[in-house]
Amino acid sequence: MTTLALYGGPPIRTRAFQPWPQSDQRELGALAGVLASRRWGGIHSGSQGEAFERALGEYLGVPHVAVVSSGTAGLMIALRALGVRAGDEVVVPAMTYVATATAVSVLGAVPVFADIAPDTHTIDPSSVEAAISEKTKAIIAVHLGGHPADMDRLGRIAAERGVPIVEDCAQSLGATWNGAHTGSLGRVGVFSFASTKSISAGEGGAVVTRDSGLAARIASLRDHGRPLGVAGHHPELGWNLRLSEFQSAVLGVQLERLDYQLAAKTKGAAFLTSALSGVPGLRPVPADLDSRVSRHGRFSLAFTLDAEAFGNCQRLAKTDPLRVPES
């Protein structure tokens, strides 16, 4: 057996992948416009932030959008706006990025881990139902890798138990479930615009909702606890988790490319899945796309691996000679 590249063997691909995030003169023009405006931050009418919120809301089909400094900040704001406090419980998937759980923890609440469905790597509704207690104040459904979680079953559980769903859409911008965008299916949706995301300003996020009352709280919490459009009045404690005008301007341009890039990623995923289908021990996640997934977000393409088919290889750094198995 040839030594795997993981353990120092020759890589199959020697040509560099396309750099990410991508940009062109449109981002440069948008940044130059903000620079010249002398209005580089804050919440104000006619801002780049307001323009991007409007564009994102139209794209997602939701009436209320608030841009924030990061996806993690968005999760914190969403949970606090829903009334999550110290000692409360929030059900989260056991496999996700750490921020899903730390956003709960920094509020003093307790993340309660539910298992994932092995075929999709998204949160398992049956495990969610078992994890709910009298202390549960929210469920966070993560659309991992761009694959929507089972929002039909989760929605029924949430309605029956009176627990709101927060959608963690950090990896699923553009994905749809039964024709509706992720982020528009739960009580609140949270997006991330960090460097690896489908659209990026280096950092940034957005919190979206259909609930006007909740939207007002979200807007207040991201801006020192002052209501939107009000100066010098802070009726509640909040944070400074605003997004800069530079980032909002870049995101406005990035959003225009999203559907084109998702189409290219979908085509690439189909090719790669087909090309690897004959390799024993590899199975794409999901093996078959659920008919309710009307569009996959294609943030990543995951496979489950049968280690025995590859000489019991492990995900070890090739710089760890003490644990590299013989080929």
Can you walk me through this structure?
The chain has 327 residues and is an alpha/beta fold. It has helices at 25-37, 48-60, 71-81, 98-105, 125-131, 151-161, 212-221, 245-276, and strands spanning 64-68, 89-93, 110-114, 136-142, 165-168, 176-177, 180-181, 188-192, 205-209, 282-285, 293-295, 302-305. The strands form 3 sheets. Strands 1-9-8-5-4-2-3 form a 7-stranded mixed sheet, with helices on both faces. A 3-stranded antiparallel sheet has the order 7-6-11, with no helix packed on it. Helix 1 runs antiparallel to helix 8, helix 3 (71-81) packs across helix 4 and helix 3 (71-81) crosses helix 7 (212-221). The chain is globular, with a radius of gyration of 21 Å. Mean pLDDT is 93; it is low at 317-327.
